[in-house]
């Protein structure tokens, strides 16, 4: 498994994510794919335990077959839409390129899960449609392509993600413009 896009974006994401991660504790990565982000980021934060997860058995098998940095756990199966997740506590959640390539119920389920696990920070990366801003030509084409592949997929509206977060008492505290018309979103839990 290998993703050229993950290879391109792992450094820009790490530069924005790194300073926001907790000093210690567990980072639950959701939709880890080929583990390129996790393998790049986990060794930079040796006091964290990085737990990658994915719905795809191929991603789990890939993680079992390669050598992992010491603080990067073997990936576990996690479908965001399942009621029960494989761990019961995490300090932060990181998820890249999931929202547009999964069913529309996923954003709300992700924040519900984050609330259950006692997570303080949720970091989400990907393309989003921002109200009042023109959609980049590349994202329009990407959205068409996604919807033609699966009617449940498509680039989500940022406002919709914020509403899903608010249902579980998470507020967006930052939105950072990233290369190739992507956004890095930082949510924190409100008590
Ligand atoms: C485009 S890949 C992103 C992989 C990696 N995060 C990256 O940015 O390179 C989307 C990933 O979402 C996972 N996925 C899709 N639906 C999911 C769900 N309901 N729960 C968890 N993971 C899911 C897929 O298996 C796939 O690995």
How many distinct beta strands? 7
Molecular shape: globular
Helix/strand class: alpha/beta
Which segments are poorly predicted (pLDDT under 50) over 5 or more consecutive residues?
Answer: none
Strand order of the largest sheet: 3-2-1-4-5-7-6
CATH class identity: Alpha Beta
Integer average pLDDT:
97
Return the CATH architecture: 3-Layer(aba) Sandwich
Q: What is the radius of gyration?
A: 16 Å
Task: For the structure shown, list the relevant keywords.
single chain; alpha/beta; 191 residues; binds S-adenosylmethionine
Please give the structural blueprint.
Elements: H1 4-17, E1 25-30, H2 36-41, E2 48-54, H3 57-65, E3 76-77, E4 92-96, H4 106-116, E5 121-126, H5 137-149, H6 158-167, E6 170-178, E7 182-189
Parallel strand pairs: 1-2, 1-4, 2-3, 4-5
Antiparallel strand pairs: 5-7, 6-7
Helix pairs in contact: 4-6
The chain binds S-adenosylmethionine.
S-adenosylmethionine (SAM) binds at residues 3, 6, 30-33, 37, 54-56, 59, 78-81, 96-98, 101-102, 106.
């Amino acid at each position: 498994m290998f993703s050229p896009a993950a290879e391109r974006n792992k450094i820009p994401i790490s530069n924005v994510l790194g300073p926001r991660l907790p000093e210690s504790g567990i980072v639950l990565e959701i939709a880890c794919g080929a583990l390129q982000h996790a393998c790049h980021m986990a060794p930079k934060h040796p006091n964290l335990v990085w737990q990658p997860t994915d719905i795809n058995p191929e991603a789990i098998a890939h993680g079992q077959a390669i050598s992992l940095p010491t603080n990067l756990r073997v990936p576990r199966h996690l479908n965001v839409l399942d009621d029960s997740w494989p761990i019961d506590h995490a300090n932060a959640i990181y998820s890249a390129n999931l929202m547009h390539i999964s069913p529309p119920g996923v954003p709300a389920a992700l924040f519900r899960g984050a609330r259950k696990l006692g997570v303080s920070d949720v970091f989400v990366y990907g393309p989003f449609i921002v109200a009042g801003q023109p959609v980049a030509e590349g994202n329009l084409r990407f959205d068409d392509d996604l919807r033609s592949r699966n009617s449940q997929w498509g680039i989500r509206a940022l406002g919709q993600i914020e509403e899903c977060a608010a249902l579980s008492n998470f507020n967006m505290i930052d939105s950072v413009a990233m290369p190739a018309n992507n956004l890095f979103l930082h949510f924190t839990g409100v008590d």
